[in-house]
Design goal:
Length: 204
């Protein structure tokens, strides 16, 4: 993969998928702190218009890390809805609005891959990210193309793209105030059948 074309190839790969599923974790660490914040998530997608993203966030104060909050965004035959623990279910006008609205509270994990699947202003659009080099890399035993990139504020990113599947398995970055972020996607499946029940959710 060449630096000048890697982002386009990545977007094209996701745009051509008929179905996609993963589970993963976002790890964040403030500079000078030993505490690692954890957000677990899962993604389900089936063209043309079925989508589900679940995530669980932990309390940001270390002694209260055991306290978690669950969230879910989905699109089914009933439209687009979001559910946050303690707030209940709400209808959302548009799926793009839903995933964008959850971007902050999910640490960006609601947007990274979904924005490429839905082809809506991908977070790694070439006007937002400049790839300087593509080198050999590895994450959790998966051989990868590692794209070394910087955003407009010169913040560094490393995108680990599988050599065999050309899918995004990990994004490591240094974001606001020097916070280190590691978004890891596992158990990725594509091109498989997905029952309607996956997108039929009943939240009290």
């Amino acid at each position: 993969m060449k630096p000048e074309s890697v982002l386009h190839e990545l977007h094209e790969r996701y745009a051509g998928l008929q179905s996609y599923q993963d589970e993963g974790v976002l790890l964040s660490q403030l500079p000078g702190s030993d505490f690692v914040s954890e957000t677990k998530f899962s993604t389900f997608f089936r063209r043309p218009d079925r989508f589900r993203f679940d995530w669980t966030s932990h309390h940001p104060y270390p002694p209260l890390k055991h306290i978690t909050t669950d969230h879910c965004i989905w699109q089914s035959a009933s439209g687009v809805q979001s559910w946050w623990q303690g707030r209940g279910t709400e209808s959302v006008a548009d799926l793009h609005i839903a995933i964008s609205g959850a971007k902050g509270v999910s640490g960006g994990s609601s947007y990274t891959v979904p924005s490429m699947l839905l082809a809506t202003e991908p977070v790694f659009a070439s006007e937002r990210l400049t790839v300087q080099a593509v080198v050999a890399g590895e994450t959790e035993g998966i051989d990868c193309h590692c794209a070394i990139a910087f955003d407009s504020r010169k913040r560094p990113y490393r995108l680990y793209i599988g050599r065999d599947d050309l899918l995004l398995h990990r994004v490591s970055s240094s974001v606001m105030n020097g916070t280190m972020s590691d978004e890891i996607r596992r158990a990725i499946r594509t091109g498989h059948s997905m029952d309607e029940s996956v997108f039929t959710i009943d939240r009290a």
